[in-house]
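Input/output pair, single chain:
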Amino acid sequence: MLMLVILISVVIGALCLALNWPILKLCYNNVSAEVFGFQLTYFYITAASFPFIGLFNACAALLRVQRKSFFTMVSAAISCVLNVGLNAVFLFVAKMGVLGAGLATLICRAIPAIFMLVLLGRKNNTVRVSIFEKFRFDGQMLKKILKIAVPSGVESCLFQLGKLMTNTFVNAGCYVNPVLDAAGNYTYDANGDLITINLQANGNTIANQINNIASVVGGGVGTSCLTVIGQAVGTGDAEQCKHYMKKMFLLSYIANGICCGIILALVPVIVNMYGFALEAKEIGKQCLYFCLCFQFVTYPLSFTTPAILKATSDVKYVMFSAVASMFIMRVGLAFLLTTDKIAGLPKLGAFGYWIGMCSDWVLRSILFLTRLLTGRWKKASGLINEPAPAA
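Output:
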């Protein structure tokens, strides 16, 4: 698994390095030449860190199944401290700008990944990897891994693609406005280019970043489901699986509720920490209040449920359902609510983006919960000790 993850992440990193310019041009065509240059620099450096992301996640998964998730937490803490510290040094002391920010990201991904690999090689582990042992590919094992990994990987890739597409809707030119000086005149930079601002995009950035914080705990519960439910499936006992499913749902709702409640209460404080214009902050607040209220109910259903289904090997249904929901709601509806290409439709900007996002959560919840309640996941899991139906 480690070798496979590293090879795939190296290939993806190499593709991003080779296609740096066209990828960024496709996604961010409206930015100034100076900003585009900064994007190129940052993307080149962070693409080189993709193998370390793969290595970290693979090692973390192998440690979690041994109930050693504490090490994952410690490694994440190391990454966080390194990221903050190196950014401070490279940006404020060395004055390296975007190059410094990229190098800080690269280093804070590389060191925890190597740290996790060293931990995984310890002799007291139930499952350990010797870095220097002779290695050969096992075709049957690769087939088993890819049967689970490919659908999950496709879903994750398309999910991120959907997020990127919807962000470009909010970055559209119809939401870009010129910056005026005190006298109401247009302002220009040193190169003579008109200085513009996209309040909707800035507000959406605020809402996205803060919502990611609110989703961290729920995402952690989903990751735990893969281990807990997976081990229950391994016993071949359907009743034990159902028992742990109920427990994970309860934990997910409690954790998600507490996290969302705290973030909701602190929205005005956190938003005011951003250096954007007051109008952008107000847009961010409106979007956050809207999405966090939806998240109270729909997040565990739309993200914990697919994690449970993945743990039962029902990955193909999760992939098709997630992709369909994303393109219909998150991409399709968000496009209709933000575009200026179709006359007569409302241009809601960032708020239209979040309507599409929350609609996606609702549809995902319906699709995944229906699958779980009908019991069709049992076929994918191959349970062997399921009680026979009463005569």
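The radius of gyration is 23 Å. The beta strands are 177-178, 196-197.
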